[in-house]
Write a structure and sequence with these properties.
By secondary structure, the chain is an alpha/beta fold. The chain has 7 helices and 6 strands, in the order βαααβαβαβαβαβ. The protein is 35% helix and 16% strand. It has a 6-stranded parallel beta sheet with strand order 3-2-1-4-5-6, with helices on both faces. The radius of gyration is 15 Å and the shape is globular.
């Protein structure tokens, strides 16, 4: 992995998910994020990426106020709708100050779990000659797994930074980190970045 062909993807580390006032974070995810030091770890990795010239992509979940852009009919989407969560243009789809994107950094807004589906992210990476990606985010067993699986199918070398990831249920996180993600990616800690 070299800085020339690597990109850092921070997945769904948005206020709605990682802040205790967030409509999703308040359900326990923010507490786990805090206990695991996810945002502090992400901040250190982000600083290092910027210093080394590694392109950074911020991915977030965001919908129109009427959810007309939500294609999934899964129960989790109904829960988002019931809570009026992750509406584009609201505090919930912005990022905490500790990892606030620079104006020059790409923000990808998705309406599903997979950040490559119906977004320009894959083309953006290919256009820049990216061959490997480093990822971290919430939720481990959702967006992180989905990103890693799709990126593997596309031929990227992938590193998951385990201490930049969390799930509301620590067992889900552990199972994903130990059993699923190693089939597609190298699993490391932020210290290795």
């Amino acid at each position: 992995m070299t800085t020339k062909d690597t990109a850092l993807l921070l997945l769904d580390l948005q206020n709605e998910m990682v802040d205790p006032k967030g409509k999703i974070g308040s359900g326990g995810l923010a507490k786990v994020v805090e206990e695991r030091g996810v945002l502090a770890n992400a901040s250190r990795v982000l600083e290092k990426a910027r210093k080394e010239g590694v392109p950074v992509v911020f991915v977030r979940l965001g919908f129109r106020p009427d959810y007309s852009d939500a294609l999934s009919v899964a129960p989790r989407i109904e829960k988002l709708k019931a809570n009026n969560a992750a509406i584009v243009g609201t505090w919930g789809t912005e990022f905490p100050d500790v990892i606030k994107p620079l104006e020059t950094e790409l923000i990808v807004t998705k309406q599903c779990v997979n950040p490559f589906h119906n977004t320009g992210l894959m083309n953006w990476l290919f256009a820049r000659g990216v061959k490997s990606i480093v990822v971290g985010g919430v939720v481990t067993n959702l967006v992180v797994e989905s990103t890693v699986r799709a990126a593997d199918d596309a031929g990227f070398a992938i590193t998951v930074l385990e201490d930049l990831c969390a799930s509301p249920n620590p067992e889900w996180h552990k199972f994903s980190i130990e059993n699923i993600l190693p089939m597609f990616a190298s699993v490391k800690t932020s210290a290795s970045f």
